[in-house]
């Protein structure tokens, strides 16, 4: 007994508390929530000048990488920048058409935002540009209050306003370090949403393939199909197809000789289409083209931002949803490519960069931009070294706007439809959906709810339903936390879940329960019923000579507890006290211990002698009790 007491004394739990006041504890928890990576830790103890320079480098990353920039890096960035510019031209025109905007606005949106991101962005691989999903989403929302055909100026102005509001939301989330909110868009949600969006976009591209000029602003499959079938009398099959043999021969040749073609294929399609349309006077044969493209740099649009009350609610609704969509895609792409380069991407810093580029972009006739996966992947594989590749792309776009924009006015709409369709097919990740089905059925349901919601109802409904299911799942984890009954692994001092280790040995007269999650009000009732049910089961299987005497609660996984949770522990104690069963606690965390002491729970169950660092010590005491 003396040896045991000495061991317990040597390993005694500290009951003096952490000494933190409520304010200091709250400040510490807030810092851990908003600054988990503690980005300013290296500035502690530094003079004011060094702190100022450090803060500037953090918020303006170009100040960090530009001083050490070299010509060796520039060679790689130059190649990458020119490569992504070749992709940005056709994508910019195509996605602007998808949003029912003048095609030149798509080119504008690949000029100013990349320059801003080069200053404030932290990812060396991210390439900035417009995306199909956000383009279609904004078109479906803004198209409900303004017509792209009847009042194109108002329609464009509302897109600029939405970009401004989206930028404000993104920057505010980044400044307030609220990147945690974007985490509610799970990977399953994004997979289903992007696949559903891709299906709708592909269906809408039949308009271009069939030579139709009008389509509905609604995005569900029923409305889109109805719009197509009501215009069958306008279908145009003017373009003569290439023979099947020639097509196979061409594709085989391209695969063998031009393995790099997929990167510049969209630009080749546009250039060839322009030349063909110009030479044969395509419009005379019923082939629709893009039409006039204004030459010159982005016109200033700050005075065009429209905050009239009759449009503001619609714009804010579109901006809020678009902000989360753009952030989730951009940050996910930046982090994914950062892992390949062994780089750390700060999500909150990226939010600020995205916000600033959309705010400033809205002042120069740009609509919503983010970091599209296709363009960023090309940037990475082209060998980019720094954010300078975005600057190179912007310079290329400037040259196009100043000198080459009119060339692209002959681009056939069918060519743009082909480019969009091929890009969208890549967004349907059926392999990921199958993996979700095999690994986690609930995640698969979340994915399919987003997909089916987008396809059959609207993009907003699909996204909201999927997010709500994700939140419901998180709440279920809180309301039904993990807990298990522990048994001893023979020949060891280890205690493990008896369900996972059926050969583990249950102890006589002692019940060991592991509580593995925070104990909040939503879970208190469930945990009480679970503990008492285990106690009842043990009493039923115990023989007359060995009835249950001790319940040991392993609280190492209980990171927090609220007042309702403490009340639950009191209720359990009162129930067990009536049966002359004692409670011991193992390894409670400091914040939990402080609350249990303040509530006098430790005192009521028997004092400090009932709290231990390990299950072994708690069992040893139960044998002496």
Automatic annotation (TrEMBL):
One of its GO terms (biological process) is transmembrane transport. Keywords: Membrane, Transmembrane, Transmembrane helix. PROSITE patterns: STAS. This is STAS domain-containing protein. Residues 500-622 form the STAS domain. It is a multi-pass membrane protein. GO terms for cellular component: membrane. The chain crosses the membrane at residues 101-120, 127-148, 154-176, 188-206, 258-280, 311-331, 351-370, 391-408, 414-430, 442-472.
């Amino acid at each position: 007994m003396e040896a045991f007491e000495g061991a317990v004394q040597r390993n005694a739990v500290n009951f003096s508390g952490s000494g933190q006041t409520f304010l200091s504890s709250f400040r510490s928890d807030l810092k851990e929530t908003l600054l988990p990576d503690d980005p300013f830790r290296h500035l502690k103890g530094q003079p004011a000048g060094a702190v100022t320079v450090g803060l500037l480098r953090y918020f303006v990353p170009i100040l960090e990488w530009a001083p050490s920039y070299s010509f060796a890096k520039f060679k790689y960035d130059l190649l990458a920048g020119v490569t992504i510019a070749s992709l940005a031209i056709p994508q910019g025109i195509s996605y602007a058409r998808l949003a029912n905007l003048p095609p030149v606005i798509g080119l504008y949106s690949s000029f100013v935002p990349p320059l801003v991101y080069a200053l404030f962005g932290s990812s060396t691989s991210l390439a900035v540009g417009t995306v199909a999903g956000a383009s279609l989403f904004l078109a479906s929302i803004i198209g409900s209050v303004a017509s792209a055909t009847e009042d194109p100026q108002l329609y464009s102005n509302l897109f600029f306003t939405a970009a401004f509001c989206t930028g404000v939301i993104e920057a505010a989330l980044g400044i307030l370090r609220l990147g945690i909110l974007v985490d509610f868009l799970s990977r399953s949600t994004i997979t289903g949403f992007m696949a559903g969006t891709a299906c709708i976009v592909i269906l809408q591209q039949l308009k271009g393939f069939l030579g139709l000029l009008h389509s509905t602003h609604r995005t569900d499959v029923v409305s889109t199909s109805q719009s197509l079938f009501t215009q069958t009398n306008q279908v145009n099959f003017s373009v003569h197809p290439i023979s099947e043999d020639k097509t196979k021969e061409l594709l085989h040749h391209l695969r063998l000789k031009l393995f790099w073609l997929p990167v510049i294929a969209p630009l080749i399609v546009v250039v060839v289409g322009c030349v063909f349309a110009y030479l044969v006077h395509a419009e005379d044969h019923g082939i629709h083209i893009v039409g006039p493209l204004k030459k010159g740099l982005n016109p200033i649009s700050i005075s065009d931002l429209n905050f009239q009350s009759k449009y503001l609610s619609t714009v804010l609704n579109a901006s809020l949803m678009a902000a989360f969509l753009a952030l989730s895609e951009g940050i996910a792409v930046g982090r994914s490519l950062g892992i390949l380069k062994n780089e750390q991407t700060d999500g909150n810093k990226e939010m600020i960069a995205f916000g600033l580029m959309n705010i400033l972009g809205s002042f120069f006739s740009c609509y919503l931009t983010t970091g599209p996966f296709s363009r960023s992947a090309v940037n990475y594989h082209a060998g980019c070294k720094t954010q300078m590749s975005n600057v190179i792309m912007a310079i290329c776009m400037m040259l196009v706007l100043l000198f080459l924009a009119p060339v692209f006015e002959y681009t056939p709409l069918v060519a743009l439809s082909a480019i969009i369709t091929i890009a969208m097919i890549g967004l349907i990740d059926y392999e990921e959906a199958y993996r979700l089905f095999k690994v986690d059925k609930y995640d698969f349901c979340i994915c399919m709810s987003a997909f089916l919601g987008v396809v059959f109802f609207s993009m907003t409904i699909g996204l909201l339903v999927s997010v709500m299911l994700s939140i419901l799942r998180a709440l279920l984890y809180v309301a039904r936390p993990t807990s298990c009954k522990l048994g001893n692994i023979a020949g060891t001092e280890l205690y493990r879940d008896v369900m996972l280790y059926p050969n583990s040995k249950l102890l006589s007269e002692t019940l060991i329960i592991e509580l593995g999650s925070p104990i909040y009000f939503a879970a208190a009732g469930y945990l009480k019923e679970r503990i008492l049910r285990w106690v009842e089961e043990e009493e039923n299987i115990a023989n007359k000579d060995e009835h249950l005497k001790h319940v040991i609660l392993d609280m190492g996984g209980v990171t927090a507890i609220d007042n309702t949770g403490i009340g639950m522990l009191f209720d359990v104690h009162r129930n067990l006290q009536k049966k002359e069963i004692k409670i011991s606690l193992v390894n409670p965390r400091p914040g939990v211990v402080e609350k249990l002491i303040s509530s006098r729970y430790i005192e009521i169950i028997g004092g400090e002698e009932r709290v231990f660092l390990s299950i072994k010590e708690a069992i040893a005491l139960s044998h002496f009790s």
